[in-house]
């Protein structure tokens, strides 16, 4: 059990997909104009990640080496479409906000990278926890980025207005996404360094 | 005709794939250290993007819609793109080894470039015809190449000046440069009038 | 370790994976189809409810389409107790600062604008996005006005509409979309008699 928790924590801190591995940048920048959007994108990705990790660790050994990547892509694409359809039916508002970035989970480097580097080599149970850890790391980073951008850009938190006025609109627009991520990365590096020293 | 010019200007400048729509960020940050490599990557993306948008358009309108299996879109499109990239690689190797030398190493990376799948899906969502799809994907690819090459030029300069603060080295400073570039491109909005 | 690759097992593996994936997708599609359809209809009706007085029919089925200026305008007819309540016109413009703007305009029987809802836009946050009634009172000035007497253009161009400060292009585009809706409403609904709000109301009296 201890090992499992370690796998999860590793995904959140040491191998945080956004701040450390710098993978899956497109949804990170595009869907974080508010905290709730970042959270839903993160959860959708985490869900796909867990399912694809589980499936690939179960069937991976039966797949011939040369068609490994196409097979993984098909499996991932199937789960992504499942998430896409479920969200269209039951969470229509979030579905229309995230729009094209739901099908694009297929080409999110994180999902394929975990399939290739972890799920294919490890047991099913560990692979689920790896998916959960990396998925949570991704979700937390996205939510935090969305939180910061929403706070600065429209003075609100999860849709609740804290102060009157428009906010620093730049942070909701495209350039603000780059700036916010850059400064959060610096912050993450500084915090991480302090932790390691202690 | 003016309609096509509008699509081109909008796709390259106003809604630049990378800087306004956030498609293809991974190669944008990853393969942009040198102007020469970014030229190769840009060229390869323009080519694959246009080709795959045309093929996916045909598949959507002649296979998926008649069979009423539009929900298979994501799965078929990504398979088609992966297959196309493989095919281009093989053909290029045989026909023009020189071009293969230049573009070859970038081709496998393109399968997971979300700009390719993204533009294919966007053309379908926008209900474009075949001619519009071709123009739109060509222009989007050009927009990607333009952003990539500009960014690489900026990063080359950045490497020459060594006084970047330690904590900002690498990705953070690159992201800030990208943000400034995105701000510059915001100046183009309103141009399509 | 992974199996050795031979042509036979490669083709077979891919075939099986594709087959199973397609099967799963078809199943999930069947399961979610009704919910997705319901959401689509509900979304349209909810939008119409915001721009028209209460109705009790299903306007998303009572629709006809007209192709103008290179795109489609949708006309939804709402009724209550079999009497016409009003018409909601989904209109568009491509002249916005960020390109396309889609609006839903609710007209009463005599052509008066009841309310306007922004369906989608790409205008700059904090400036052009004030066309949305949730952000600014700009769009409210159209309510209760009849475009026969109320000129749908900004004051700078001799019209009756107060433009949003620093967002003239967005304001002009908004007027352009509303004018397109009114044109369709007048020519295709009022004149052709597909809509007979007045006559059905008087005949009951």
Outline the structure in words.
The complex is a heterotrimer of chains A (198), B (193) and C (205). With 198 residues, chain A is mainly α. Chain A has one domain (2-142). Chain A has 8 helices and 2 strands. A two-stranded antiparallel ribbon of chain A has the order 1-2. In chain A, strand 1 and strand 2 form a beta hairpin. The longest helix of chain A has 31 residues, at 124-154. Chain B has one domain. Chain B is 74% helix and 0% strand. In chain B, helix 3 (35-64) runs antiparallel to helix 8 (130-160). The longest helix of chain B is centred in the last third of the chain and has 31 residues, at 130-160. Chain B contains 9 helices and no strands. By secondary structure, chain C is of the alpha+beta class. Chain C contains 3 helices and 5 strands. At the A-B interface, helix 2, helix 4 and helix 8 of A face helix 2, helix 4, helix 7 and helix 9 of B.
Count of DSSP-assigned helices of chain A: 8
- Unreliable stretches of chain C (pLDDT < 50, length at least 5) are 195-205
Largest beta sheet: strand ordering of chain C: 1-2-3-4-5
Largest interface: A-B, 42 and 40 residues
Rg of chain C, rounded, reads: 23 Å
Number of strands of chain C: 5
Q: What overall form of chain A do the CA principal axes indicate?
A: globular
Number of domains of chain A: 1
Helix count from the secondary structure assignment of chain C: 3
| Spatial ordering of strands, largest sheet of chain A | 1-2
Q: Gap between N and C termini of chain A, in Å? A: 26 Å
Strand content of chain C: 15-25%
Give a quick account of the main beta sheet of chain C: strands, pairing sense, barrel closure.
Answer: 5 strands, antiparallel
Compressed to H and E, one letter per element, the order of chain C equals HEEEEEHH
User: Ranges of chain A with pLDDT <50 over ≥5 residues?
Assistant: none
Structural class, judged by helices and strands of chain A? mainly alpha
Q: Shape of chain C, please?
A: elongated
